[in-house]
Design a protein that fits this description.
six-stranded antiparallel β-sheet, 30 strands, mainly beta
Length: about 550
């Protein structure tokens, strides 16, 4: 392990200090903790000797602040409150309108503890407090350290009445800035009213399990299910199992059509009946949080295969039973699968699946091939796929742009383009050039290997893009809400609006993220397009 070099530092006794706002119309007076000279003697004295001490020897006065409004006739007290610092903060700033106080660090131990940055409101009440780890753009070990402190801060000031700019400097002399919004309690590396308003208005909806009645009343729009009495009981944990059948190994390994199409660990059922073969398997091609159920089907002893999406999302609410002894093909040649209904009881977390509970067992789900294959408008997408994409199954060109839905890389939206549209096209196509020209890309079309993602937005500049490398399904937040509790989105690509920076002309912040990572950019309008600079990124 490399040695860490630190130096000793010297702290004098803390003193009462006044901190003024920008125009000196308000100031906060911070009084450090007061421990009487005889306090520890009194504390350690016997009961008899304690009686010799004065009451003033026995009382510790915590660190506190008083906010004053400056006036010619005399300063008026606005509020007085104890602070969370055990001794005193190292420094403090007051907002331009005197409504907020922000303190930094702890006396004797700068950079340590959960009081490195503490925010108080217009009545002196605690808003939030942060450790250095919570706010630092650098790793903690990159800062200069002494025996007692981490020297991280090179400045802090109020940008306006409710936004704070905090400056950091590491031991290599590199500096970084972050902005903190006291209204939203949100940190960002940019200064933008539009960005702040967007996050201030964002309403987070915590996960709530569905009512059991909602699960029991679920009906699938394409396939029927019925109750049966002779069934394989549900085994707890079956919803998370990955299944592999040795009987499939030779078939999959010998078939170029299946290699790469099917993850053998996700096979639910397989059966061969005469010239027909069917594999029921799970895939994330059209689903994100839980896999969708797909069918690989051959009518010529496995020489050629067709792949069909059933529109069923695993565990939402059907869980198919791989251990069932029921034949996969029924007497009519359609597929029959034992299933049960589950209810999701915990949210999906990154790297961790949701938990489920059994609601109803003993169900038989019938999947007929006529419905699987149906493409009413002949556009190359089955009616089931169009339901997932929210395109019109009765209209071959949903957005009326001259390209059939099955070929269209943006099948739902055909809107007027703007200069911002080319920025969004650059982002969704994963182009990492430093400039973005204002040219319109040559049209490209979807094929059976095209990846499909979803973007939930009501931004017309983003909806107007012409993708080049993947199919993008645009839906609005309202449409997603109306789709119902059992509609699982396709793998989502998250693209933010373009937020104008307050202190620069024609300059915007924009970001995107997917299941692999996130990328944040600053883009600036120039005569023939845009310049683009990546300001941060990360891999999940």
């Amino acid at each position: 392990m490399a040695p860490v070099f630190v130096f000793a530092d010297v702290w004098k006794e803390p003193e009462t200090k006044d901190y003024y706002n920008a125009d000196s119309s308000y100031f906060a007076r911070i009084v450090p903790i007061n421990i009487p000279d005889n306090y520890y003697s009194w504390e350690n004295a016997s009961s008899k000797k304690k009686q010799k001490y004065l009451p003033t020897d026995t009382i510790i006065t915590p660190c506190y602040a008083m906010m004053f409004k400056v006036a010619e006739q005399g300063d008026s007290l606005v509020w007085k409150k104890d602070l969370v610092n055990p001794i005193a903060p190292v420094t403090a700033i007051v907002s331009c309108d005197g409504k907020y106080l922000v303190t930094f660090d702890n006396w004797h131990e700068c950079g340590y503890g959960d009081n490195v940055m503490v925010c108080y409101d217009e009545n002196g009440n605690l808003i939030q407090k942060y450790s250095l780890k919570n706010i630092s753009p650098f790793r903690i070990e990159e800062y200069e350290m002494s025996i007692s402190s981490i020297w991280w801060r090179c400045g802090a000031e109020f940008f306006d009445n409710y936004r704070v700019k905090v400056c950091f400097e590491n031991n290599g002399g590199d500096q970084a800035e972050i902005y903190y919004n006291l209204k939203t309690q949100h940190f960002s590396e940019i200064l933008s009213e539009e960005y702040d308003a967007y996050h201030r208005d964002f309403e987070f909806k915590p996960f709530q399990p569905l009512d059991i009645a909602v699960v029991l009343n679920y009906t699938n729009p394409f396939f029927n299910h019925e109750e049966i009495t002779d069934y394989t009981p549900y085994q707890k944990g079956e919803e998370h199992l990955k299944f592999f059948y040795e009987s499939l190994r030779k078939r999959i390994d010998a078939s170029p059509k299946l290699i790469g199409e099917i993850d053998r660990r996700q096979v639910v059922k397989y059966e061969k009946k005469g010239r027909k073969e069917a594999i029921v398997y799970k895939s994330y091609e059209y689903d994100e949080r839980e896999p969708g159920i797909w069918v690989a089907y051959s009518e010529n002893k496995g020489k050629t295969w067709a792949f069909y999406y059933t529109g069923i999302s695993h565990c939402q609410p059907f869980c198919l039973k791989s251990q069932s002894n029921l034949p996969l093909f029924n007497k009519d040649g359609d597929l029959q699968l034992e299933a049960c209904m589950l209810r999701q009881i915990t949210p999906h977390l990154l790297g961790q699946g949701a938990n489920y509970e059994l609601v109803k067992d003993g169900l038989l789900l019938t999947i007929d091939f006529e419905t699987l294959r149906r493409d009413t408008d002949g556009d190359g997408l089955t009616d089931i796929a169009e339901a997932k994409f929210m395109t019109n199954p009765l209209l071959s060109d949903t957005d009326n742009d001259g390209v059939e839905d099955g070929l269209d890389l943006n099948p739902r939206m055909s809107l007027p383009r703007s200069d911002k549209t080319v920025v969004f096209e650059d982002l969704v196509d994963y182009v990492f050039a430093d400039t973005i020209p204002l040219t319109v890309s040559e049209a490209r079309y979807a094929n059976p290997r095209t990846n499909t993602v979803m973007i939930v937005t009501d931004d017309p500049d983003l909806q107007a893009i012409q993708p080049r490398i993947q199919r993008i399904i645009f839906i609005t937040p309202e449409e997603l809400e109306k789709a119902g509790c059992f509609y699982l989105p396709i793998e989502q690509l998250h693209v933010s609006p373009m937020f104008k920076l307050d202190n620069e002309d024609d300059t915007y912040y924009v970001s995107k993220s997917d299941r692999h990572g996130f990328w944040d950019f600053i883009v600036k309008r120039i005569n023939n397009g845009w310049t683009k600079k990546m300001v941060s990124s990360g891999i999940f």
